[in-house]
Amino acid sequence: MQELDRLDAGSMKGALEAMLFASSDPVSATDLAGVLGVAPGEVASALADLAAEYSDANRGFQLREVAGGWRLFTHPAFHDQVEALTMSTKIALFREGELVQVDKPLELYDNPCDLYTADFIGNPSINFVEASGTAGASGLSVDGVMGRLEFSREDMTPEAPASGDLKLVLGIRPEQITISREKTDAAQVEARVYAGMPAGSETLVSVRVGEKLITVKELGSTHYAGDETVYLSYPPKKVNVFDASTKRLIKYSR
């Protein structure tokens, strides 16, 4: 892989997560630092932060330092989540003793009411991408690294502002994104491959769009070269849009 630009803290955590997910054995901070081209101390600090985030967010994995290095373990709560999604007719999600959302499993997955719920439900985790937008009578205009998007008012939730400029967070599930080696549509987003994680029936591919690391889930076994330029497509209708200030969903996935 060619030398990459220096990663910010968020992208480093994403890269570490990707590499640990692909390994069934513990990996030392020194080895991870060698791959990323950064100091071992930076990696050790990022791993400690990531382990704390997993512990707080209950995202389906636990990150632990064991003999030989760092390793990801499946969290028991993830199995509970899978069982709930596949066997329940309705799910009640609580956070710190407070009821957050009650809904049918697929509706909870497709239209989580806030950023916490979106991040909690699903594995691999949803991609969060910051963007800016303007709300008006006709709907919402969004601009960011994933392109310019237009949403009609009928796709908006009751909590969506009637007007004004907004700071937004787009929620895009990894399986909603497709990768192409050729640009065939002006709406496609250019990206660079960061890492591939083959898992038999599926492959998780980490790509960089600007400074943002994004996870793509592809069926089957696929291979991309490090730093390879690729083009991303995704259905705008499926995108969740959250108000960054309130953290609430303001545009439904259809």
Description:
The protein is an alpha+beta fold. It is built from six helices and 15 strands. It has helices at 9-22, 29-36, 40-57, 76-87, 105-110, 115-120, and strands at 61-66, 69-74, 91-95, 98-103, 127-136, 139-144, 147-152, 164-172, 178-180, 189-198, 202-209, 212-219, 229-233, 240-243, 249-251. It has a six-stranded antiparallel sheet with strand order 7-6-5-8-14-15. Strand 3 and strand 4 form a beta hairpin. Helix 1 (9-22) crosses helix 3 and helix 2 crosses helix 3. The termini are far apart.
Keywords for this structure?
single chain; 254 residues; five-stranded antiparallel β-sheet; 6 helices; 25% helix
Quick rundown:
25% of the residues lie in helices and 37% in strands. It is an alpha+beta fold and 254 residues long.
pLDDT averaged residue by residue: 86
How much beta, percentage-wise? 35-45%
Extract low-pLDDT stretches: none
| Number of helices, where a helix is a run of at least 4 consecutive DSSP H or I residues | 6
Distance between the termini: 38 Å
Report the biggest beta sheet as strand number plus sense, adding barrel if it closes.
6 strands, antiparallel
How are the strands of the biggest sheet laid out side by side? 7-6-5-8-14-15
Q: Would you count the extended β strands for me?
A: 15
Shape: globular
Structural class: alpha+beta
What is the gyration radius calculated from CA atoms? 19 Å
SSE sequence, one letter per element: HHHEEHEEHHEEEEEEEEEEE
- Classify the helix fraction into a percent range: 25-40%
